[in-house]
Amino acid sequence: MKVVFKLTDITALDNQLEQIANHYNSSVKLQDTGQGKFIFVRSRIKIVEKSKNNEKYIHVWGAKQEDINYLSQHWGEPIKVLKMKMSPLEFASEIAELPNANDLTKEDIMTLLEVTERDLGKYSRFIKMASRRPSASDDVKKANNILEKIA
User: Fold this and answer.
1) Is residue 8 located within the same domain as residue 61?
2) How far apart (Å, rounded) are the C-alpha atoms in residues 34 and 74?
3) Residue % of the chain over a pLDDT of 70
4) 11 and 69 in contact (C-beta within 8 Å)?
5) How confident is the model at residue 33 (pLDDT cuts 50, 70, 90)?
6) Exposed e or buried b per residue across 50-88, where buried means at least 16 C-beta atoms within 10 angstroms of its C-beta
7) For the chain, what is the domain count?
8) Could you tell me the residue range of the domain that residue 133 belongs to?
9) Among 24, 123, 126, 141, which residue's Cβ finds the most Cβ atoms within 10 Å?
10) Would the pTM count as exceeding 0.90?
11) Rounded-to-integer distance, Cα 83 and Cα 66, Å
C-alpha cells in the first residue's frame, strides 16, 4: 500500500524520523535533490518527507497494516491509503517520485509498489511505448529509464 500522512507539527519531525529509522533498523538519509529526508528498508518499506504548497507530507510505499498502525502513532491517521491497482500512468508517476530510484532493484520496486513480476512487465511495456511519444510526460520518461535499468 501507499500511504500519505499530512504533518501538522513539523518541529519534532527529525526526532520522529530517527525513532522510526531505529524501529526498522535503518537510518535517515537526505534525498538526492537535497530537499527532505527518507528512510529506506531494503525490500520492505520506504518513508519519504515531501513538501507541497508550504505543507509537509510523509509518503510511505510498501506499508502493511502494522506499519500504518505504528506510523499513525507519530503522525495521526493517514490522509490517503492506496490499495487498488494503479493505472500505468499512476505507476510511472509513483516510480518517478521514489527518491534515489536509480539505486533500487527490480525486487525493491516490486515490493515498494506492491506489484507482481507479471504486473511489472505489463507496466514496463506500456511505459516503454508511452515514453516514445513526443508528448510523453517527464514522469513517463523517468520511469522508463528506471525500468530499463532494472530489466
Assistant:
1) yes
2) 24
3) 99
4) no
5) confident
6) beeeeebbbbbbbbeeebbeebeebbeebeeebeeebeb
7) 2
8) 88-150
9) 123
10) no
11) 15
Q: Are residues 133 and 104 in the same domain?
A: yes
Residue 84 pLDDT class (50, 70, 90 cuts): low
What the block records as the C-alpha cell of 105 is 532493484
Please check whether residues 16 and 61 belong to one and the same domain: yes
The residue assigned the cell 490517503 is 80
Amino acid identity of 122? K
C-alpha cell at position 146? 528506471
Cα-based distances in Å from 29 to 5, 38, 142: 19, 5, 22
Cβ pair 99, 32 in contact under 8 A = yes
For the chain, the maximum distance between any two Cα atoms, rounded to a whole number of angstroms, is 46
Residue 30, CA distances (Å) to 8, 37, 55 in order: 21, 4, 18
Q: What is the pLDDT of residues 87-134, one digit of tens each?
A: 898 899 999 988 888 888 999 999 888 899 999 999 999 999 999 999
* Unique residue bearing C-alpha cell 506499508: 63
Cβ atoms of 33 and 97 closer than 8 Å: no
